[in-house]
């Protein structure tokens, strides 16, 4: 039931903090991250030398963030693949390749086919899913349930953030197993993950900012989303949310790519959403925002509280509180873009829970 919310999208956006709290509960043990579900011995885990992360849609975006963390923390090379692409090429599998499939429903046909193929090639297959007893869970060697609770809205929100947290735990587990991180470091990262629910609650309480910004899309035909590093993924996911629920065309690019083509789209009033948190690439993205503004386009920034440069430069800012770790910013920043997409869709008279042409789980290849 809706429990007082106007639609499932609103309900599920609001459920994100509790979903993450559930997932983190009892995960930090004396020996690091508790993840027996992996069904792999310490030796097997330590010997993983390559990882394939495979998924579709929003779950694929989770893989892009997971790659950054696994490569940095565990120093294991990662390949991210759309399941529908991997199914028609030859994966480069070693004797110690781990395949991780990420699927909210656990029933996405392309993802299941990819998992079966990787298994056939001798890989261990691990599933990150939200649905207990799903096909993905039954057919995998191990399963991590993200426990976000049933996601009814076709557009994925709480599963996205919960899956990102689940993959952070996996990255920490791998880093501890292969000696790239010690217990103290793992604990430090875990504490940062524990800060996520409160930060998301804070962003949700600022939803009026998204409601205001949604007015800028009133006469728009298209929108551009920009971000750098892990937040180029926030841009991809923000654009997907907007397209899916509001039927407004949206494209996303790593901010530095704008000058290689998309800049030609800019004209007065064209909405550009720039994710520009306080991080090591902040000033580079600010330069892109200056280019956007110089062409008369409208910039809607997602920025960190206290960023005076952005406050001066942009009329429209979706503010996020400071996040203790750069890799975790996407978990907080996306909440604004989920709410923005919802408000734009409602203003355009769309049914946010059941967008046209889409099914909650895509069971055909
Ligand atoms: O259930 P899955 O995570 O495997 O679904 C994958 C995609 O179909 C799904 O994420 C889709 O992109 C969502 N509707 C996006 O909001």
Automatic annotation (TrEMBL):
Q: Which residues form the SIS domain?
A: 41-180, 213-355
Q: Which residues form the active site?
A: 360 (for fru-6p isomerization activity)
* Record's subcellular location: Cytoplasm
Task: Give the domain of life.
Answer: Bacteria
Q: Name one GO molecular function term.
A: carbohydrate derivative binding
Which EC number(s) are documented for this chain? 2.6.1.16
- Kindly list the biological process annotations in GO that this record carries: carbohydrate metabolic process; fructose 6-phosphate metabolic process; protein N-linked glycosylation; UDP-N-acetylglucosamine metabolic process
* EC main group: transferase
Task: List the residue ranges forming a coiled coil, or say none.
Answer: none
Cellular component (GO) terms are: cytosol
**Main location per UniProt?**
cytoplasm
Instruction: Give the UniProt keywords, A-Z.
Output: Aminotransferase, Cytoplasm, Glutamine amidotransferase, Repeat, Transferase
Q: Could you tell me what reaction this enzyme catalyses? A: D-fructose 6-phosphate + L-glutamine = D-glucosamine 6-phosphate + L-glutamate
Per the entry, what this protein does is:
Catalyzes the first step in hexosamine metabolism, converting fructose-6P into glucosamine-6P using glutamine as a nitrogen source.
User: How does the record describe its quaternary structure?
Assistant: Homodimer.
State what protein this is by name.
Glutamine--fructose-6-phosphate aminotransferase [isomerizing]
Q: Which gene encodes it?
A: glmS
């Amino acid at each position: 039931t809706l429990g007082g919310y106007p639609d499932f999208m609103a309900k599920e956006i609001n459920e994100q903090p509790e979903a993450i709290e559930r997932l983190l509960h009892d995960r930090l043990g004396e020996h690091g991250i508790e993840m027996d579900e992996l069904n792999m011995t310490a030796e097997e885990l330590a010997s993983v030398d390559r990882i394939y992360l495979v998924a579709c849609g929003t779950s694929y975006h989770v893989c892009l963030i997971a790659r950054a963390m696994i490569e940095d923390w565990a120093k294991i090379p990662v390949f991210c693949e759309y399941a529908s692409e991997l199914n028609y090429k030859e994966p480069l599998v070693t004797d110690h390749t781990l395949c991780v499939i990420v699927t909210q429903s656990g029933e996405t046909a392309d993802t299941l086919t990819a998992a079966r193929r990787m298994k056939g090639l001798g890989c261990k297959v691990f599933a990150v899913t939200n649905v207990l007893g799903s096909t993905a869970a039954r057919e995998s060697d191990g399963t991590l349930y993200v426990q976000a609770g049933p996601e009814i809205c076709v557009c994925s929100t709480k599963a996205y953030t919960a899956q990102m947290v689940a993959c952070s735990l996996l990255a920490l587990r791998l880093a501890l197993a292969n000696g790239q991180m010690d217990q103290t470091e793992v604990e430090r990262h875990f504490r940062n993950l524990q800060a996520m629910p409160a930060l998301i609650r804070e962003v949700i309480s600022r939803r009026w900012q998204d409601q205001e910004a949604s007015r800028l899309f009133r006469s728009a035909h298209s929108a551009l989303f920009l971000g750098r590093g892990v937040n180029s993924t926030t841009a991809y996911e923000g654009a997907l949310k907007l397209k899916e629920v509001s039927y407004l065309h949206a494209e996303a690019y790593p901010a530095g790519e704008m000058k290689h083509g998309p800049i030609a789209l800019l004209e007065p009033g064209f909405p550009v959403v720039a994710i520009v948190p306080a991080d090591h690439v902040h000033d580079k993205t600010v330069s892109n925002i200056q280019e956007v503004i110089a062409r008369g386009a409208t910039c809607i920034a997602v920025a960190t509280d206290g960023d005076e440069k952005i406050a001066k430069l942009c009329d429209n800012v979706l503010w996020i509180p400071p996040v203790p770790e750069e890799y975790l910013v996407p978990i907080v920043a996306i909440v604004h873009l989920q709410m923005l997409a919802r408000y734009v869709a409602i203003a355009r008279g769309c049914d946010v829970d059941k967008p046209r042409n889409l099914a909650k789980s895509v069971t055909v290849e």
